[in-house]
């Protein structure tokens, strides 16, 4: 298979971990006889420093012309001090999601058997946890109209949803549930929000087309509680943008380390794959960042393009690195392996 | 001291647990020579069944004329099946918060030493956890304008805040931090929301008047993660209505049982005290509900009116019930004590 891949390393540890993903993809090309081309683009603080914009036109075009985007991480300490600045690195990411219409963010949460001890939750609580969050990514309060009063004493953000925005992600989530444990939980706040009521209405109707899937509902406050008390009750969680942001970060904490979780952002025409974790500026350039989340994101990319065997090969190599304790220091304080060695080990085992 | 107290038992186990609180308050009256009067009012599903409204005019007036309100719980299975119904029991609670301008919801999260085993989190993770959430309760997306398109394919909820709404709760939160561990964490999403930027601006300015208190900021997604990874880093968390709803329920899960946590809702002229937990319809009338959350809410009420010694006496009696294992079945499956016996034991020990 031929694939055009855009690499957006971004800020912080992004470029370092992404380089390990490329190693793995090159191993996949060789082993399975594919042909991937890689082009690099700028986004985030690096783009701001060079072009004054966190998402230069050039980068958008590059992404639009490619089959898939591998994304690193975004944000630097320099801009973190001032969350109120109009132009922030994150704006680049939000704008890219919107430009490419990446309306579905998929975040699997699964416990690595070797890492149960890392979880803040007790073993019997997390046992068997394996769920995936489908988060709406281009609507809701993130992108609704924003206002300030002239005197600066009042501000507002509009949360809005249309049936179309809900139904396209709902179909993807139901399909995922069908191929998994056949349970879909819609998380909303339908006892307070009208947008949540619209979600319930649309999702309840769509459920009729997926009779194999059991649909249930949880208010978001209860969901946050259940995710702590009993995370293994979940299979597919479907939710709107803001709730998905909160719950997926909470979900990632279940695993103890954010350095392990991949994510995919899918649209009708484009797809982007990125680690769950942030840019970890303190670790930049030190060869200590965990490349596994980024590498597992490439596995999600391979699956997305139907290369399931290839995807499995990557996942198996990652598991091997854990079993053999070829891991970065975040997982084993005594480890002598750096980012690049772990990446090479995984690539060599594909 | 003379106090006029309105009792709103509400639905489900509300009236049963509230009855135990009254026992305790009567013990306080006797022991400390106070005089409290109690009047009952209707709210929630019981009020809907009787008056067709979850918050009858009568109840509002009763509350306005009293010094404090003790609230039970709200919601029944009957109405839970239909979250989209226009008139729901919860509407009564939301309207009451608004009518009485109860703009600050205070939810302490503290681990009972005897109950560490109940927490889903590992012992070393929760060790020392003792924080309090100050949640804004009468603004934000809960009360902003709501819209539907005529064809029912679009809905919106407006999230809005004014400087005044933020500053009044911020002052209360800073004062609390000053008398505690001197740390205040503002939780927001200032990298995306304009309302969050207003919160940061206002809170940062108010911080100047409280130089003893260290102010820091967390994005809400990170806060949900930190609450799982390292809850004992928090002292006072200040946040807007929707984020507070989610985080306080997540926080309650830290304790393993929701049956233990009290809350207070404070306004300039009125104050209401209620357990954290829901109406637990399945347990109604069975004398198995845990009355501790409701009883500890009365302790918050006593403190609120300056009766600190009285409040401590209630808390000490609760601790004694735990130490002596005079608890309901949710805390000890072999317990033979019911709601009413636990309430009586605590009252007798005041
Ligand atoms: C950086 C930020 C704008 C972003 C979001 O809130 O969507 C991040 O938290 C995420 O979840 O990808
Ligand atoms: C019942 C519901 C409307 C309410 C809220 O969301 O505020 C509840 O969850 C709470 O936290 O008191």
Automatic annotation (TrEMBL), chains A, B:
Subunit structure as annotated in this protein's UniProt entry: Homodimer.
UniProt xrefs under Gene3D superfamilies: Isopropylmalate Dehydrogenase (3.40.718.10)
E.C. code: 1.1.1.85
GO molecular function: 3-isopropylmalate dehydrogenase activity; metal ion binding
Biological processes, Gene Ontology terms: L-leucine biosynthetic process
Similarity comment: Belongs to the isocitrate and isopropylmalate dehydrogenases family. LeuB type 1 subfamily.
Top-level taxon in the UniProt lineage: Bacteria
Keyword flag Lyase: no
Presence of keyword Oxidoreductase: yes
Organism of this sequence: Arenibacter aquaticus
TM segment ranges: none
Broad class of enzyme this protein falls into: oxidoreductase
Cofactor(s) required for function per UniProt: Mn(2+); Mg(2+)
Sequence ranges assigned to domain Isopropylmalate dehydrogenase-like in this UniProt record: 4-346
The protein's name in its UniProt record: 3-isopropylmalate dehydrogenase
GO cellular component terms, semicolon-separated: cytosol
Keyword tags: Amino-acid biosynthesis, Branched-chain amino acid biosynthesis, Leucine biosynthesis, Magnesium, Manganese, Metal-binding, NAD, Oxidoreductase
């Amino acid at each position: 298979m031929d694939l055009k891949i855009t690499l957006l390393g971004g800020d912080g540890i992004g470029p370092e971990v992404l380089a390990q993903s490329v190693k793995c993809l090159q191993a996949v090309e060789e082993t399975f006889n594919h042909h991937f081309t890689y082009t690099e683009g700028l986004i985030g603080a690096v783009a701001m420093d060079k072009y004054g914009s966190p998402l230069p036109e050039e980068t958008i075009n590059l992404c639009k012309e490619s089959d898939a985007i591998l994304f690193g991480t975004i944000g630097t300490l320099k801009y973190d001090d001032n969350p109120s600045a109009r132009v922030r690195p994150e704006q680049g990411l939000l704008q890219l999601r919107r430009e490419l219409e990446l309306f579905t963010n998929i975040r699997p949460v699964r416990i690595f058997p070797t890492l149960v001890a890392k979880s803040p939750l007790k073993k019997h609580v997390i046992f068997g946890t394996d769920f995936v969050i489908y988060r709406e990514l281009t609507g809701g309060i993130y992108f609704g109209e924003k206002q300030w009063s002239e005197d600066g004493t009042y501000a507002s953000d509009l949360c809005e949803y249309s049936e179309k925005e809900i139904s396209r992600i709902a179909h993807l989530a139901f399909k995922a549930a069908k191929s998994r444990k056949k349970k879909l939980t819609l998380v909303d706040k339908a006892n307070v929000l009208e947008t949540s009521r619209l979600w319930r209405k649309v999702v309840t109707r769509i459920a009729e087309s997926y009779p194999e899937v059991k649909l249930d509902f949880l208010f978001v406050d209860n969901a946050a509680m259940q995710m702590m008390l009993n995370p293994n009750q979940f299979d597919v969680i479907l939710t709107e943008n803001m709730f998905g942001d909160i719950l997926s970060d909470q979900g990632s904490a279940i695993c103890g380390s954010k350095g392990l979780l991949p994510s995919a952002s899918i649209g009708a025409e484009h797809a982007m794959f990125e680690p769950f974790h942030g840019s970890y500026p303190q670790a930049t350039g030190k060869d200590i960042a965990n490349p596994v989340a980024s590498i597992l994101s490439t596995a999600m990319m391979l699956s997305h393009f139907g290369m399931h065997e290839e995807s499995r090969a990557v996942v198996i190599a990652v598991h091997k690195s854990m079993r053999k304790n070829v891991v970065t220091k975040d997982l084993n304080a005594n480890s002598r392996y750096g980012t690049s060695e772990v990446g090479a080990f995984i690539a060599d085992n594909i």
